[in-house]
């Protein structure tokens, strides 16, 4: 069938529909950096790093800014549904594209299980007549149906999911700012002004706690790169990628750094509720400010947020499988498109861990899933490290060939080298400190396992024909 003929990697995305509009991609790029971790997981970062958590989010945001600029440089030059996995394949080697593509898929597929569980738990708290696992199946089934339709459906749902999150954050920023300026009339007297910012020390647990907190921060930021995957299904990919890369600064500064600054000003960093997953950062802050039913309001926002994350994760996983399939690094069936232009088999296969999480919840064994979640711990850092190495090598080759590069990484190659050293240094610090030893180790083991599988795949290749054709047609860098 013509839609599935194996062409060069540069043309992989042409089989997919160009159904995403500019407003969809704007909201997808915003939603990509606003996950459930902002509302729930950020409390743990504040509790461990103190008010200096603001610094951790700022440093993490700076790192993501540089990474998105590097990824944007490659994506503007050659938009592709496989994004950084495709670029790693070309710049570093097939083993790198295979490994990072499958590691990324595993990370998002595992996260979908957690997101479905959180959604199920919130719905069960409101309407307890259906068990958590029943709601999980409902959420999974609904979002699978959306992703099996035309890509425009995914974009439309993500647009509204993201809009709810953005409105909630803006309201939080307004209320928090009023409280800091002593203009908020309700709540505890102590929960006003900036007293908590330095009351017990800005960095009570030392600078090393800020570095180790980076893992939680990077976990929150992962998803910013989704727009480079989604842009391949728009009418003007290069323009949309350029726009998203340029606007990521204010999104991170406003949504994350701004939210964290307000929280650490208004709430003591060692408030035990901050590390209670049933509360979350926004709930603790708004409750202290006397906002009625703050927990239920934030729970609704968290519900839309985790559904948005699940929706985007499912979309990204299916497109990554599509790209891997076209390169001969995944079964051919993952590259088949249904009548709506969606890689249907890839969509269904990507729900594997979410369904497993549902089974564990139904058998009251969900604590087992925590072991799997450890393997996602440093995945974001490995993905970003791969992007940096890919951009370094690809840029040098393009410049050697005299190619025109319209969208460039700043201060090349020194800033790229700095990012590489910073990521490697962060991983080493996490290992030495021991705080995230398991996360680093488990993710590394998962990556090594994927590399080993990659060698076996190359030896007994399920897509041998695709591989040979692509090697022949692969464009030069």
In short:
By secondary structure, the chain is mostly helical. Helix content is 68%, strand content 0%. The protein is built from 20 helices and no strands.
- Give the class from helix and strand content and strand pairing: mainly alpha
Order of helices and strands: HHHHHHHHHHHHHHHHHHHH
Q: Proportion of β residues?
A: under 5%
Largest sheet, if any?
none
Look at the structure and give the mean pLDDT. 83
Distance between the termini: 29 Å
> Which architecture would the CATH scheme give at its second level?
Up-down Bundle
CATH fold category name: Amino acid/polyamine transporter I
Helix content: 55-70%
How many structurally independent domains?
A: 1
What is the CATH C level class, in words? Answer: Mainly Alpha
Low-confidence stretches: 1-14, 462-477
| Rg estimate, integer Å | 22 Å
Total of helices? 20
Form type: globular
How many beta strands in the DSSP annotation? Answer: 0
For CATH, the homologous superfamily is named as Amino acid/polyamine transporter I
Sequence-ordered SSE layout with sheet pairings:
Blueprint: H1 22-31, H2 36-39, H3 42-49, H4 53-77, H5 83-91, H6 94-126, H7 132-148, H8 151-180, H9 207-221, H10 226-230, H11 237-266, H12 281-288, H13 294-326, H14 344-349, H15 352-362, H16 369-374, H17 379-400, H18 414-433, H19 437-459, H20 464-473
């Amino acid at each position: 069938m013509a839609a599935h003929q194996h062409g060069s990697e540069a043309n992989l995305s042409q089989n997919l529909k160009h159904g995403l509009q500019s407003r969809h991609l704007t909201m997808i790029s915003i939603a990509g950096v606003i996950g459930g971790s902002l509302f729930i997981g950020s409390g743990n970062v504040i509790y461990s790093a103190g008010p200096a958590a603001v610094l951790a989010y700022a440093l993490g945001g700076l790192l993501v800014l540089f990474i998105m600029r590097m990824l944007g440089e490659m994506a503007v030059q050659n938009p592709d549904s496989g994004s950084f996995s495709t670029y790693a394949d070309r710049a570093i080697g097939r083993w790198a594209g295979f490994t990072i593509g499958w590691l990324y898929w595993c990370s998002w597929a595992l996260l979908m299980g957690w997101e479905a569980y959180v959604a199920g738990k919130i719905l069960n708290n409101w309407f307890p007549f259906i068990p958590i696992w029943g709601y999980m199946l409902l959420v999974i089934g609904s979002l699978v149906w959306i992703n099996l339709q035309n890509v425009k459906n995914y974009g439309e749902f993500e647009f509204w999911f993201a809009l709810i999150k953005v409105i909630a954050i803006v309201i939080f920023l307004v209320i928090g700012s009023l409280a800091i300026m002593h203009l908020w009339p309700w709540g505890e007297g102590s929960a006003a002004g900036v007293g908590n910012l330095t009351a017990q020390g800005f960095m009570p647990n030392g600078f090393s706690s800020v570095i180790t907190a980076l893992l939680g921060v990077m976990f929150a930021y992962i998803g910013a790169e989704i727009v480079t995957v989604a842009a391949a299904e728009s009418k003007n990919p290069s323009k949309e990628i350029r726009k998203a890369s340029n606007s990521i600064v204010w999104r991170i500064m406003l949504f994350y750094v701004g939210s964290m600054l307000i929280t650490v000003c208004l709430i003591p960093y060692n408030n035990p509720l901050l590390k209670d997953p049933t509360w979350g950062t926004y709930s603790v802050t708004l409750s202290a400010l006397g906002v009625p039913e703050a927990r239920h309001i934030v729970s609704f926002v968290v519900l839309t947020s985790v559904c948005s994350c699940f929706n985007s994760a499912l979309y990204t996983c299916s497109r990554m499988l599509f790209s891997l399939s076209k390169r001969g690094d995944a079964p051919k069936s993952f590259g088949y498109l249904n009548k709506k232009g969606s890689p249907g088999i890839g969509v269904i296969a990507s729900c594997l861990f979410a369904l497993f999480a549902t089974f564990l919840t139904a058998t009251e064994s969900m604590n087992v899933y925590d072991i799997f979640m450890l393997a996602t711990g440093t995945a974001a850092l490995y993905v970003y490290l791969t992007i940096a190495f890919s951009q370094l090598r690809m840029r040098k080759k393009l410049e050697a060939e005299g190619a025109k590069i319209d969208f460039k990484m700043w201060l090349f190659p020194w800033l790229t080298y700095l990012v590489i050293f910073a990521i490697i240094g962060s991983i080493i610090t996490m290992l030495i400190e021991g705080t995230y030893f398991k996360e680093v180790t488990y993710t590394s083991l998962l990556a090594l396992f994927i590399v080993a599988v990659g060698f076996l795949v190359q030896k007994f290749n399920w897509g041998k024909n695709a591989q040979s054709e692509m090697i022949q047609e692969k464009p030069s860098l």
